[in-house]
Amino acid sequence: MSSSVVDRYRRILSGEQKRFSPYEFEDVQYRKQKVQMIVRYAIENVKKWTPEEARRQLSLQDVKELKLHLVREYIEPPIEAKPDDVYYFVEYAYPYLPRYTEEQRALWVYKEVLSGIRRHFPPLYFQSVKGEERAKICFQYMFHELMQLQDIYELPKIFGKTERAYALLKKYKLKILVDTLYFSPFDMITDMYPELNRPDLWQD
């Protein structure tokens, strides 16, 4: 099975064959293995890269030239991936490669939003339990690194006034948290930090 799919892939690369048969990846049991074989062949035998080099260097243009777009539909991109990102092809083919932690991925996305590399967060990025984790990671980065504050008990003073809270969240590109995940800044803060859910902390 493995050698035959690589043989067909080589014929596609040489122009002898246009694409894979519609039935090539029909069997779910072998689909992943076949796609991994194709991507590995492209990286190791065509580009002569190590997996680490491939993750750093593989581009959308490479994917087109290597005809890997023919298997793209079988490789689900991570939620963080931008339309022109292709690093996850390599991670799919080499599952043992070290991965970013959830925190590292969330901060990577947030920093790209802050810098303007991304216009906005990925769709549904803050939905589900994982989304709530990402929300807290981004908010903590805003509070500790961008606002240069450490004591969470300062949060009620800063976010107690709704207008000021929205202005700060807008400034640091996190207003989306209240727009999509929480009912209000108060709801957001007390959900992330239950110890702050005390009326006396929120009085002027």
Walkthrough of the structure:
By secondary structure, the chain is an all-alpha fold. The protein folds into two domains: 2-93, no CATH class; 102-202, no CATH class. The protein has eleven helices and no strands. Helix 1 crosses helix 2.
Task: Give the SSE order as H and E letters.
Answer: HHHHHHHHHHH
Structural class: mainly alpha
Largest sheet: none
* Overall number of structural domains: 2
Shape summary: elongated
The number of helical runs is 11
Total beta strand runs: 0
Q: What portion of residues belong to β-strands?
A: under 5%
Helix content: 55-70%
What's this, in brief?
This protein is mostly helical and 204 residues long. The chain has 11 helices and no strands.
